[in-house]
Design goal:
The complex is a heterodimer of chains A (about 250) and B (about 50).
Chain A lengths: L2 H54 L25 E6 L13 E5 L3 H4 L5 E4 L10 E7 L19 E5 L3 E13 L21 E9 L6 E14 L9 H7 L2
Parallel strand pairs in A: 2-3, 4-7
Antiparallel strand pairs in A: 1-2, 1-5, 3-4, 5-6, 6-8, 7-8
Chain B lengths: L1 H7 L4 H31 L8
Classes of the chains: A alpha+beta (about 250), B mainly alpha (about 50).
Chain lengths: ~250, ~50
């Protein structure tokens, strides 16, 4: 067999290996991580619900009229510590509740590429329910793709954030396409770091276009309501939560 | 390379084909389980944050 023949077979083998790697990264590993992240987030959500039930004992749930201002968690979370659970029904595979994700402090690869976490909170931004901007980041493709379906969001879609204290219902407002250095989107009033905030926003950041990192796709939501864990999940997602609650 | 492998395998053509397929499956399993996660860790690609 000629040297050229062997060289050709090596090249073809290398090509097949690269295609296999891409398939592994974008579909195989992505699907495995998505399943595990969703599973872990369902567990985290259930744990907080259970902890609250145990702490409340037999006391009745509060009257819907007096929830007051949202509770803002003032805990100092270390890098990688779970602080919330994100649930966006629009991101679900139809017929499932597979878009639950744990939001942890920090946006390093230890959070974003984790098999249990997947969504990172920008530590310098506000907390769920707080006046200002609760800004989070996740992968669009591969590594469980916590924001894979982000471009399907429609005006008014629910972005539900659960913490150890309560449920925060945000409503999707608008998209923005920016360059990766546009840190202004994280400001309490996005793009206006000098202004005093009065709204309670959630900001989702992920990469754009799909399978590229050239740009960032930003999705903003506005807080509509909140309720303590003792009041149960928002009616809109109560059936979904019952499906993942263990 | 693959031709030489084919020639040194024993048995009739269908047994050789079976052995080749098993070898290929084992190679893909090893790649998916150990090699690709390691390569991915080295490459460390994709950034989704603004900073």
């Amino acid at each position: 067999m000629s040297v050229v023949g062997v060289f050709g077979e090596l090249l073809v083998t290398a090509g097949v290996l690269i295609l296999l790697f891409l398939g592994w990264q974008l579909w195989w590993n992505d699907a495995i991580m998505a399943g595990q992240q969703s599973q872990a987030a369902s567990g985290q959500s259930s744990k907080w619900i259970e902890d609250e039930r145990a702490a409340r004992g037999d006391a009745p749930a509060p009257d819907p009229a007096d929830y007051g201002d949202p509770i803002v968690d003032t805990t100092e979370y270390g890098n990688g510590e779970p602080l919330a659970v994100m649930y966006v029904p629009r991101f679900n595979t139809p017929g499932t509740v597979d878009s639950v994700r744990t939001v942890a402090q920090g946006y390093g690869l230890d959070v974003l590429n984790s098999f249990e976490l997947g969504v990172g909170h920008y530590p310098e931004t506000q907390m769920p329910g707080e006046v200002g901007n609760f800004a989070i980041a996740a992968h669009r493709s591969a590594y469980g793709g916590g924001m894979h379906e982000i471009e399907q969001l429609q005006l008014g879609d629910g972005i539900f954030i659960q913490t150890k204290d309560g449920w925060y219902t945000y409503r999707f407002r608008d998209f923005e396409y920016v360059t990766p250095d546009s840190v202004d989107v994280l400001a309490p009033v996005p793009h206006h770091p000098d202004l005093q905030p009065s709204d309670r926003l959630v900001t989702l950041t992920t990469c754009n276009p799909l399978y590229s990192t050239a740009e960032r796709l930003i999705a903003y939501g506005v807080l509509e309501s909140w309720q303590p864990l003792s009041a149960g999940p928002p009616a809109e997602i109560a059936a979904d939560v019952a499906r993942w609650e263990q | 390379m693959y031709g030489a492998l084919w020639r040194i395998l024993p048995g009739p053509w269908w047994l050789r084909l079976l052995i080749m397929l098993v070898l290929a499956a084992a190679a893909v399993y090893a790649l998916f389980t150990w090699v690709f996660p390691w390569v991915d860790h080295i490459l460390n690609p994709i950034n989704v944050t603004v900073e």
